[in-house]
Design a protein that fits this description.
homodimer, 10 helices, 33% helix, Esterase-like (chains A, B), S-formylglutathione_hydrol (chains A, B), S-formylglutathione hydrolase activity (chains A, B), 287 residues, alpha/beta
């Protein structure tokens, strides 16, 4: 089966000399139609292969959120970086209760592969964002698959950290905005990991950045994390001090910046998104 | 009655070293609760009076749209410019049919004062954005009322051009993205002006930028207009050549730039919003 089968460009808009596109395709991994967004900088529109940052959004968001709200496209255009934005979960899987809670099911896929029924048939965002989506988007757009970064916000920050630590040769640069660093130890994570992976906590470790660091997984580049100190989820769900402690113990280079007054919103994300892209560009040897 | 009575801050978010706020208040002019947004740059947060650009959104939009989608706040922060964003119409006026069409009534106030029943009781966005809102927001925020600019997109571009030409001493700088330049001659405008102002076309001229130029109204600064040449509304609703012709005849300085491939969306607006802010800053003697 051809990965580009049933691929549809839903929207295409010139932007900052490049182009924003929203695609829909039939995902083999998810067993459903799925959507993603792409920003191609002017260099890519001109046919040049460019490095690419995958940006994972948080709970309740979609493939549109980061592209619309991060205000990062001018800087991506300037740096010659592409951005790819997957959705945050499968849509329309038909799992009972998947639309009931905003922090579970639809819009809350946690970038992992569920092993528990009834989620395991479709909730496979882990394989989707690390295999199917890169293979597809890098086949249809002029992206340099040897220079690939990953970032994300909140649940997406969790996804970025986890996948970069699991596959540091695949994701060469990594950053996060207000990430869930230790889902195994906080309410959002406990709820999702229990449902998707079962009650056996050992299975959770592969999807927990702090546990991965404790188990010896590190990333060769510096991890950049920004966190607002007025974030309404800081104490209960985010707890970045666990990441600091685990990184220090593992010898992982980490730049964790606390920003006075900033909250959990995209007003916070957009304030630092251009700096994150410069971090990725520098690690990826661009610009 | 105190203009700041019943003023409520609905949201406040630090952003780019400044702050985004969304307010709600009781508008005497509209006779309803009304919402608006403000971005204050770092200089204003530090207490300094800063110049301000009022940004008017287009059909179906709200006070949130420009702040979320223009990606202009980093540049506003850098330049030390505030941005004020009114809503696009009264909300909940209770006029029969006001929610029926997307180009009439709710979300489509056209920045004018309706004279025709049943619209005339509440649809008074003209006086609202030129008197009540500036008096209110400049009383509660450190804004320099002697350095005030106006911009807008589509219907909001119409509003910006019209009000700048009607009161050039009040609005010292002016720009527009894909504006409706000649509403009296296009379907969107004919529909709205007929409903709001009646069938007597002479009454329409005060709310039509081309008619105002033809009647001798000019602005002392250069008007900056950006227009995508792939804009889906270009031929039917926007017709910027009327503005070029009228400006040339009136001796009005106009920079009208056509952009190959760009459409009518905020992906277009965000591509040029920073340049518009630099235009305003330059005319307002800032930065």
């Amino acid at each position: 089966m051809n990965d580009t089968a049933e691929l549809q460009v839903r929207e295409e808009h010139p932007c900052h000399g490049g182009v924003v596109r929203f695609y829909e395709h039939t995902s083999r991994v998810l067993g459903l139609r799925a959507r993603f967004g792409v920003f191609l900088p002017p260099a890519a529109v001109a046919g040049q292969k460019v490095p690419v940052v995958y940006a994972l959004a948080g709970l309740t968001c979609t493939e549109e959120t980061f592209l619309i709200k991060s205000a990062a496209l001018a800087e991506a255009a300037r740096l010659g970086l592409a951005i790819v934005t997957p959705d945050t979960s499968p849509r329309g899987a038909g799992v009972e209760g998947e639309d009931k809670d905003w922090d579970m099911g639809t819009g809350a896929g946690f970038y992992l592969d569920a092993t528990q029924a009834p989620w395991s048939d479709h909730y496979r965002m882990g394989t989707y964002i690390t295999q199917e989506l890169p293979a597809l988007v890098e086949a249809i757009c002029p992206l340099d698959g040897t220079r690939r970064g990953i970032t994300g916000h909140s649940m997406g920050g969790h996804g970025a950290l986890v996948h970069a630590l699991r596959a540091p040769a695949f994701w060469k640069s990594v950053s996060a905005f207000a990430p869930i660093v230790h889902p195994a130890a906080v309410p959002w994570g406990e709820k999702a990991l229990t449902a998707y992976l079962g009650t056996e906590r050992e299975a959770w470790q592969q999807y927990d950045a702090v546990c991965l660091l404790e188990a010896g997984h590190t990333h060769p580049s510096t991890i950049l994390v920004d966190q607002g100190d007025a974030d309404q989820f800081l104490e209960r769900e985010l707890q970045p001090w666990h990441l600091e402690k685990a990184a220090a113990a593992a010898g992982q280079k980490l730049t964790l910046r606390r920003h006075a007054g900033y909250d959990h919103s995209y007003w916070f994300v957009q304030s630092f998104a251009a700096e994150h892209l410069r971090h990725h560009a520098q690690v990826l040897g661009q610009g």
